[in-house]
Amino acid sequence: MAESVVLDPVDLHLLRLLQNDARTTYRDLAAQVGVAPSTCLDRVTRLRRAGVILGHQLRLDPAKLGRGLEALLSVQVRPHSRELVGPFVERIRALPESRTVFHLTGPDDYLVLVAVADMADLQRLVLDEFTSRREVARVETRLIFQQWDCGPLLPPSPTSASSSSSAPTSASSSSPTPASASAKSG
Asked: Which of 4-13, 67-76, 91-100, 107-116 has the least mean pLDDT?
């Protein structure tokens, strides 16, 4: 497991701002955080080098690209072996319908987020690209009605880490977004 990076309040503020809009200029970031632009650039560079910032993503509307139906496919493979994981994942990642692939513990081995044109396209994808494979034992499909984005990812605060196991957390106050308008990938 990777080690955590120590982040100070300025780093955390930068990460919050960049997760809300990765196109914010260093000058604007610096002004909002209260540091010089050169300091802001140095800190963002350090966060990139430390592996905290992995990259930037462009979010597209699947419906505007002719893929208005999104679904989660729970996939069970047999045998679930190390030799199968790499080739199976690469094959799924190569499918134009695949958005995100998760390797899981539990009864299902993979969870695949897909975006397709319609129900017939989803049926074709499941039958031709999943269940027709010798190693695929089962596929369960769940349609996505709606999706909500959550707040920025930040390290747990010392107080929330100790109380999170005993106290319930409140739901995000983000407004709902149709799944076709916003799909995040990891």
From this structure: 4-13
Angle at 97 between CA 96 and CA 103, to 5 degrees: 105
- Residue 74, helix vs strand vs coil: strand
Q: Are 147 and 177 in contact (CB under 8 A)?
A: yes
d(CA 101, CA 114): 9
Q: For residue 124, which phi and psi values (nearest 5 degrees)?
A: -60, -45
Bridge partners, residue 101, by sequence: 112
Q: How many CB atoms lie within 10 A of CB 139?
A: 20
For the sheet with 98-103, list strands across it. 98-103, 110-116, 69-77, 136-143
Q: pTM (2 decimals)? A: 0.75
**Tokens (6 digits) for 109:** 């081995």
pLDDT on residue 162 = 52
Question: How would you class 183 by CB atoms within 10 Å of its CB: exposed for 0-12, middle for 13-18, buried for 19 or more?
Answer: buried
3-state secondary structure of 158: helix
- Which residues in the chain belong to E strands, given as ranges? 69-77, 98-103, 110-116, 136-143, 146-147, 177-178
